[in-house]
Amino acid sequence: MIIGRKAANFIRLCLSYIVLVALAVAAIYPALWILLASFRPGKSLYSKTLIPETFTLSHYKELFTSPVYMFGTWYANTLKIAVFSMLIGVVLTLLTSYALSRFRFKSRKTTMSTLLILGMFPGFMSMIAIYLLLKEFNLLDTHLALIIVYAAGAPLGGTLIAKGFLDTIPRSLDEAARIDGASNFGIFTRIILPLSRPMITYIALTLFVGPWVDFIFAKLILRTKENWTVAVGMWDMVNTMQNSNFTLFAAGAVLISVPIMILFGFLQRLLVDGLTAGASKG
Amino acid sequence: MQRHKTRAGILSAIFMGFGQIYNRQFIKGLMFIAVEAVAIIYFISNLARAFWGITTLGESPSRLEKVKGIAKMVPGDHSIVILIESLITLLFFVLFLIVWYMNIRDAYKIGAERENGRPSHTFTQSLRYILDYKFAQSFLLLPGLGILFFTIMPIIFMIMLAFTNYAAPNHIPPAKLVDWVGFETFRNLLVLKSWSHTFYGVLTWTIIWAVLSTVTTYFGGMLVALLINQKGIRFKGMWRMLLIIPYAIPQMISLLLMRNLFNGQFGPINQYLGFFGLDGLPWLTDPFWAKVTVIVVNMWVGIPVSMLLIMGVLTTIPRDMYEAAEVDGATNYQKFRIVTLPMILFSTAPTLIMQFAGNINNFNAIFLLTGGNPVNGNYQYAGSTDLLVTWLYKLTLDQNKNNMASAIGIILFIIVAGFSLYNYRRTKSFQEEDMIQ
């Protein structure tokens, strides 16, 4: 039995679309469910139908007006922490990965192995120590403390990934620039940075998302309610109310997730369209 | 014959910066002098106490004392605070010794150059030299300091805790002091029946979990990335966007949400199964099904990350490699096996290892979804889905068995680090990293 090339291709595409649709449904369904729950009147988690019979915005309103939830403040706090720790963290990660990718020095491989190993230490085991350290410097209950800790930890998570990426940028580009008289710093800013935009985006995103997700450490450091991040606030909401106000939680969840998703929308082209593919040839 | 190098070296050893000034490098010399001055002031007031603190862990517990006939609580030494303060001071001291050594070496080297008739660098020349030849090291300095204080210091601290008796109910400061006990905690964990049974049980599940969750998300992500990247698939951007959605939702939210979806009694999943006339499954309450559930949910959370990463790699694969393969008449599968797969593996091997390690320590997935439950009656403070890492969380924050938790942490760390390092050193991107060019 010989199937024509065209027919085989057609079957392959059909199967691919079926799989993609199934995956997309699985990916969207929980998100859709929580979105619809946030518009559902009442407080209950359970509903007979996916789509509520009536829609209400009262849960969103309650988040911002209720004296119990300082959602607006938490939101601004998280945004501030996320932006600053992302900026500093990206710079630190790029510094280490550039140094490790392009320079050959004595303790280079040791440094790489050390980074790899340190990244594996169970994170919150060091929390008690960091807590006491921050207490020493009077940084408890400040956002600065979180920014410092998130940013300082960034190279551990991102360096090896970024280095792997930088390794794929042809060395011939550096050498050409060096012949043209560019300094190390010039090569870094003029050649490496523009070419590694997809990787920078990837690292920036992960570093930005980190503070939104993290609640254990933020919970430990941030003591007063007006200093909380959204994650701590939401955690508290679920924990103190035992899911009794699920629709409110759903509304908060939507508000946390939407900006990150929009960010993804804008940046995903950058994430995927690596600029390096044709750089060497051109 | 002038003896500049010895003289400069000795001068710098006596007081930082003197050798540099002797070498006529005034700005550098003054900078070193300032460093030493600050260091002396700091260490005079702290160093002796640091040595005392780290050896004794405090000497006087808090106690009741009669003051004018009224019993009053007098605060004693807080062993843990003392331990960490001493540790910070000693770290600073080590840093100082390194700077001191570098200062002597610098004075000696410049002195030697002067003996050979080369004048010492001016300050601007030194800066130039650093930017040209010590660029990598100076680039690494700042991140290095951050890592030293926020990663290495806490690790040393936790390692030390494992050798103390810092545990409830008898040794919790500030009421009571903590002492060094050597390897006792490790012995209890590995040999004492009540602890070791839990330890080996949880360890086994941790490893099964890490392997399954890494493999499922990695190959799941690769499959999805390849599916979307196929020639002829339309709306690539839309598919990508749809499939990234789980990643864009903060894990804390999505896992708490999944906990509700998989609720055995009222959760929608069991409701849907009911529509088809199927009995619902005890997703989160049966030990076996709870394990299945965490792996499935982890796929939902983890596949988009792998997908993004692998899509990024796919774009860096040079087109001409595929063109060459096509000229040789390769089928799609052959192109995948010979070009795509090796390139993906090459670029992502370190990430794959990190993901494996990350999954061994995947706190969120377990803690938020099942909290380690369902309860296992045979275990010490652990449930059926508890990983080592969530178990040690429970031991620290709920039970105050800090020394036991630290010991578990160290063992966990040794397993993960040893395995990963061994693997990482074997990957091509470590050994032959210059070959990809």
Task: Give a brief outline of the structure.
The complex is a heterodimer of chains A (282) and B (437). Chain A is mostly helical and 282 residues long.
Write the layout of secondary structure elements.
The complex is a heterodimer of chains A (282) and B (437).
Chain A: H1 5-38, H2 58-65, H3 71-102, H4 108-118, H5 127-136, H6 143-167, H7 171-179, H8 184-195, H9 197-213, H10 216-221, H11 230-241, H12 246-272
Helix pairs in contact in A: 1-12, 2-12, 3-6, 3-9, 4-6, 6-9, 7-8, 9-12, 11-12
Chain B: H1 4-14, H2 18-22, H3 26-56, E1 63-67, E2 70-74, H4 79-115, H5 123-133, H6 135-161, H7 184-191, H8 193-229, H9 236-248, H10 251-261, H11 268-275, H12 287-316, H13 319-327, H14 332-360, H15 363-369, H16 388-398, H17 402-426, H18 428-431
Antiparallel strand pairs in B: 1-2
Write up this protein:
- The complex is a heterodimer of chains A (282) and B (437).
- Chain A has 282 residues and is mainly alpha-helical.
- Chain A has 12 helices and no strands.
- Chain A has helices at 5-38, 58-65, 71-102, 108-118, 127-136, 143-167, 171-179, 184-195, 197-213, 216-221, 230-241, 246-272.
- Chain A is flat, with a radius of gyration of 24 Å.
- The model of chain B has no long low-confidence stretch (mean pLDDT 84).
- Chain B has helices at residues 4-14, 18-22, 26-56, 79-115, 123-133, 135-161, 184-191, 193-229, 236-248, 251-261, 268-275, 287-316, 319-327, 332-360, 363-369, 388-398, 402-426, 428-431, and strands at residues 63-67, 70-74.
- Chain B is an all-alpha fold and 437 residues long.
- The radius of gyration of chain B is 30 Å and the shape is flat.
- Chain B has 18 helices and 2 strands.
- In chain B, helix 6 (135-161) packs antiparallel against helix 17 (402-426), helix 7 packs across helix 8 and helix 14 packs antiparallel against helix 17 (402-426).
- The interface between A and B is large, with 104 and 99 residues.
